[in-house]
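Hi there. Long-time user, first ticket. I'm pasting a complex I've been working with (about 861 residues overall). I'd like to know whether the download I got is complete or cut off, because the file seemed smaller than I expected. Thanks.
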Amino acid sequence: MTNVPIEGILLPNEKHNHESPTSWKEYFSFSTDHKVIGIQYLVTSFFFFLIGGIFAMVMRGELMTPESDLVDRTVYNGMFTMHGTVMLFLWTFPSLVGFANYLVPLMIGARDMAFPRLNAVAFWMVPVVGIIMMGSFFVPGGPAQAGWWSYPPVSLQNPTGNLINGQVLWLLAVAISGVSSIMGAVNFVTTIVKMRAPGMGFFKMPLFVWAVFSAQIIQLFGLPALTAGAVMLLLDLTAGTAFFDPAKGGNPVMFEHYFWFYSHPAVYVIILPIFGIFSEIFPVYSRKPLFGYKVVAVSSILIAVVSGIVWVHHMYVSGTPSWMRLIFMLTTMFVSVPTGIKVFAWVATIWGGKLRLNTPMLFALGGLIMFVFAGITGIMLSSVPVDVHVNNTYFVVGHFHYVLYGTVTMGLYAAIYHWFPKMTGRMYSESWGKIHFWLAFIGTNLNFLPMHPLGLQGMLRRVASYAPEYQFWNIIASLGGFLLGMSTLPFIFNMVISWMQGEKAPANPWRAIGLEWMVSSPPPVENFEETPIIISEPYGYGKSEPLTANLSE
Amino acid sequence: MKIQKILNILTLLTGAIAVTVTSLWIGQQAYSWLPPQAAAESLLIDDLISFLVTLGSFIFLGVTSTLMYSVIFHRAIKDDFTDGPPIEGNITLEVVWTAIPILLVLWIAGYSYQVYEQMGIQGPSEIVHLHNPLGMESAYAEPKDSPANALAEPVEKIDVLAKQWAWVFHYPERDITSTELHLPSDRRIRLALKSQDVLHGFYIPAFRLKQDIIPNHAIDFEFTPIRPGKYRLTDSQYSGTYFATMQANVVVESPEDYQQWLAQAATQKPSIAKNQAASEYAQTSNQSVQTGWVTVPPAAPPLVNSPG
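Hi, the file is complete. Here it is re-exported in full:
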C-alpha cells in the first residue's frame, strides 16, 4: 500500500511553511496541522468536561435530600439535559476525535490528514456548538429541559412562546455538531484507507487505527438518521409541521427510532477508540505482544456492524411489539461476543507479562475492570423482562456511567498520560498522576455503584425529588460525585505544571513499539522526514524484529 | 517443575471454586436488593435477575481475579527492562472464548424469552396512525399453565389516564374515577393506558412492570397482583417540569375489600383531588436557587369520586 495522491488533497509540503508550535498563540489560531488540531480538540473538550461536571454536581447537590429544595425544578431539568448533551457532544466525542487527529496520521506514517482544511473547519465548529449550548442559558425560559433524548411531545412544548428558545438552540447545536462529525468521519476514513505508509497493510495497522476506522464508519451511516430526526423536530417546533406531534397526528415513537438508530451506535463510536487505547497501552506496560491481534482487529468491525441493529433495546417498553423486543434482545446480547473477545485478549496480554504500573497502565486497568462490570449490567439490561423493571431507573444511569465515566473517561485519562510526553515534549509527574488515579477510581465507584441498588429499588432517573427510602444511597452517590469533581484538580495541576516545566521527554520514554514513538517529542511539523516503510506487525514486544525498513528504532 | 505444575493447577482449582461459591452467594443476595414481590410477574423477573447476577458475578470475579493475580505476581522487577514472552495468540483458546460468549448469549436469551412469554404483559394492541401490519400485535397470548396466567380469570378492566401531572383511574363497570389505583389481589388486571398530552410511563416497582403510554395510542397492559398492601405508581417516562411528582398510591386488597371500596366510592360525589404539581405551581417555590423560567402549567386537578 503506497501513498496515493488524491485529487483535491492539499499536500502537506505545500502549506506548512511554519515551525512546530512554539507559542500558546498557535493553539488559539486556525491551524491545519493535525497535531495542533488534535490538541485544540483535547483542550476545548476538557473545558466543557469541567462545565458538564459542574452541572452534575448541582444535580448531585439537589439529590442529597429527597425534597426538591436546592434549585427550581426547571433548573434541575435544564441541568440534566445540558449535562448529558455537553458530556456527549462536547466532551467524549471531541476529545476522542482529538486523539484520533493527533495519533492516526502518526501511527500510519502519514504527514497529515487527507483533508487538512476540512479538519480545521470541523474543529472550529466545536466551539460554535459550545457557545450556542451555553448561550441557551441566557434566552428567556432557559436552556432545553427535555433531556438529551429530546423526546417529543415534551420537547415540542414551548411555554415561552418565543421562536428562539432553549430547545431550538439545542437542536441547532446538535445539528452543527453532527455536520462537524460527518466532516471528521469522511476525513478519517479517507486518511486511513488512502494514506497509510508503504508496507502497512490493514493487518499491520495499530489497533487504535482499526478502532477509529470502525467508529468513523458508524458515524457515516448513523449520523444522517439523527440529523434527519433533529431537523424534523426543529420543523415541528418552529414551522408547524407534524412529524412527531401527536396533537396534530404525528407519531412521537418515530422520533425515538430516528434518535436511537444513531444514538445507540454512538456509544460504540465513543467506546471503540477507548478499546483502541487499551490495546495500545496494555502491550507497552506488560512488555508483551497484543494477544490475538487479528481477532481483536476484526472484532472492531464486527461491533460496528452489530451496532446498526440494536437500537430498539432503548424502546422495549415504548410502543414496541413483542416480536421486535425479542429480536433486538438477541442482537443486543450479541454485542457481548466481539467485546468479550477483546476483554479476553487484554487479560491474556497482561497475563505473564512484566507489568509496570505507571499512571496510564493504572487508568487502563481501572477502566477495564469497570468496563467488565458495565458489560455485565449491559447484558442484564438487554434482557427484555429485566429491562421492563429497570428501564429509565438509576440502574440504567449507573450502567452507562460505568461505560462513559468508568471506561471512556478513565481510558481518556490513560491516553492523556501515555501520550503526554509525545504531545508536549515533557514528562508528567508520576506521583500526582497516581493520586489522580486513586481519587478518580474511588470517586467513580462511590458515585455510580449506589445507582444500581437505587435502580433495582425503582428510583427513576431525571427526578428532582424522590421517596425518603432512597436517600442513603443518594448521599453516598453525591459524596462520590463531589470526590470525582475534586479528582480533576490534581490532574489539571499536573498537566499545567508539567507542560510548563516538566522534565524534557525523549522520543520514546516508554520504550514502546509504534511509528509515533520513532519521531521526536513533540514530532516535527511534517511528522516524518522520510516516509517509513513498514515491514512487520505492530506490538512486536519480546521479538527482535524492526518495525520499519528505513527509520532507526 | 512437575510440582510447580500441580501447584498451578491446584491454585486455579481453588480460585475457580472460590469464584463459583461467591457468585452463587451473590446471586441469592439479589432478591434482597429488590422491592417486595407484589405481582405474579415479579417472581419470574426476580428469578431471572438472580440468575443473571450469579452468572455476571462469576464472569466479573473471574476476570478481575485473573487481572489482580497478574498485577500482584507478574510485576516487572525494579531494574528488569527486558520484554515478556512474545506470545501472540493461541487459535484453540481464541475459538473457545468466542464460543463461550455465544453459548452464554443463547442461554440467557432463551431463558429471558421464556420469562417474557410467561409474563404475557402485552403491549400496544394497535398502532393508530401507522397502519403497519407489523405493529399489529395480537394482545392476548394464550395463557398456558404459567404462574402468571394460572389466575387469569376473571379479568378486571381499568382505564388509566395520564396527564401532566396526574393519574386518573376509571373503573368502567361502575363508572367510578379515582386518583388511587385499587386492585383486587389474585385477579388478572387489564389496564387500558392512555395519555392526554405527552409520553408517560406506567411503572410500579413492586410489580417490576413498566409500559410507556403514548398519546393517540391505545395500549393494553396485563398483570396479576398477588400481595395485598400499599405500593407506589410512578411516571417512568420523563414528562416535563413536575415529572417527579407524578405518583399515585396503588392499593392491592382482597377481592371482597376491593368490591367494598368500589361500592363505597360509587356513593361519593366527585371532588377535586389533591395534586402536588398544581399546588407547587400555585405557590411560589421555596428553592434556594430560582430563575423563574416559565413552565408548562399543570393540567387542572382531576375531579374524582375517590380522591384517595
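A couple of notes from our side: The radius of gyration of chain A is 23 Å. Chain A has one domain: 37-517.
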